[in-house]
Amino acid sequence: MAKKKTSETIMKTIWWLISPTQEQENLLLELSEAHRILWNTTNEYAREYRKHYLNCFHKNESLEKNDRIKPIVQEFDLMYQYKNIGKFPELAILNVASAQTTMERVVAMWQSYLGNRKGGDWTACEPGDAYAHQFTVMSWKAPQLYMIDRGIRVPQNSGSELVISIAPHANMIRNYKIKKLTITRCVRDLEKPSQYKISATYELPKPETVSLERFMALDLGAGDIGYYSPEKSGTISCRRPDKYWMPKIADVEKRMTKCTKGSRRFQDLATARKTMFKKMADQQLDFERKTAHAIVHMADCIFIGVTSVRLGLAKTKTKSGKVHRGVQNTGLLARLPDLIRQKAIEFGKVVIDVPDPRLQNDQGTNTLTKHPSFNRDEYLAQKKLSAKIIFERGMAVYNQKAA
Q1: Which pLDDT does position 135 carry in this prediction?
Q2: Are residues 13 and 85 in the same domain?
Q3: Which backbone phi and psi does 151 adopt, to 5 degrees?
Q4: Do 113 and 259 belong to one domain?
Q5: Which of the four pLDDT bands, split at 50, 70 and 90, describes residue 319?
Q6: What is the largest CA-CA distance in the chain?
Q7: Beta-carbon neighbour count of residue 291 at 10 Å?
Q8: Whose CB has fewer CB within 10 Å in the chain, the N or C terminal residue?
Q9: Which pLDDT band holds residue 356 (cuts at 50, 70, 90)?
Q10: Which pLDDT score is estimated for 362?
Q11: Angle between helix 330-346 and 264-296 (nearest 10)
Q12: Rg of the chain, C-alpha, whole Å
């Protein structure tokens, strides 16, 4: 069996804010308008293929990525090649690679929409058009990006030159290859002044693995994370912003049902609901990143129990009969292990997955049992015991691989 190839590099993304000069902002707005027209044109072109896409999905016919994007890319290539200035003069400024990135975003949104419709979500909406008074996000990919002394040179077909300053992170990324650059506006309304957010993904060499001297095991959970090592053991309480925001979101949604759909009051409540969801997601992700960073610095080799539907939690309900909110908080269990693995690679650490001790053993019974009445002390003691079992199994897996 052929060994899986491992990459010798890793990717990192950083972002910073810039305040462009008037000349640079005029060029950014001109590029934004061109991308907006391209977005709407691609969206209109994709609608023509909607029936074809739906037929393929209903017939379970697979559509390869290149086949999905190819018709739209060819349409732009023809339009760009023949310089259809009479119909779309604004597109002459666009770089072909950047334009294809915008079109691929539109196609990806359509595939997401069609996938949701196929899955039975008939409330899913088609991708909408970009508004003229809002800034359109723009992206560029390597090898069109060039690093010069003043910053990152962004290619485009006009006579003007757009150079993005890297002053805040010059020492960090100057010697590395930029793989992708994204420009967004902090305030999308073009009538209001705003800074611009620059997101750059760059490639750097993978660090060498450190000597494995400290070992630790983790037992993940939506409420608490248990950890165990020969030196110490304990639990980490998980931040649960959903417990704060979900009742507020439910209250807003209740008020929305009493408003006329499309009215100004309805739109204000919809904006507030969207903001609450974003804050909840940002707070959750912020906690996960900081927790992953702290965990990676606690040991050189980390054993993670493979998570699954554990202890029958999927069937637990509250007194009112609703599914327990902790079951719905699956983002932590899905993202945190991946963030720990990414941080481990960045610092030359090792992460090993081991079977969850809550899963059935060879005799067909659960290694640990769920307490019928919840007790905090017993729960935390069980988390530590579970982490200890994961540690013992992880050491066995590690010794087997080392042998």
Answers
A1: 87
A2: yes
A3: 150, -145
A4: no
A5: low
A6: 76
A7: 18
A8: N
A9: low
A10: 45
A11: 50
A12: 26
Whether 231 and 197 share a structural domain? no
CB of 202 within 8 A of CB of 12?
yes
Give residue for tokens 């909607």: 50
Which residues contact residue 279 at a Cβ distance below 8 angstroms, ignoring those fewer than 6 apart? 241, 245
Q: Are residues 153 and 52 in the same domain?
A: yes
pLDDT score of 131: 85
Cα gap 143→320, rounded to integer Å: 57
Name the residue range of residue 37's domain. Answer: 9-205
The answer to whether residue 49 is domain-embedded is yes
Residue finishing a domain among 153, 172, 205: 205
pLDDT digits (tens, 9 = 90+) for 250-288: 999 999 999 988 889 998 999 999 999 999 989 988 998
Cβ proximity of 339 and 347 under 8 Å:
no
In-domain check, residue 2: no
Q: Is 37:79 a contact under the CB 8 Å cutoff?
A: no
Give pairs for 186-190: CB < 8 Å, separation 24+: 186/17, 188/134, 188/135, 189/133, 189/134, 190/29, 190/133, 190/134, 190/135
Last residue of a domain, one of 177, 205, 233: 205
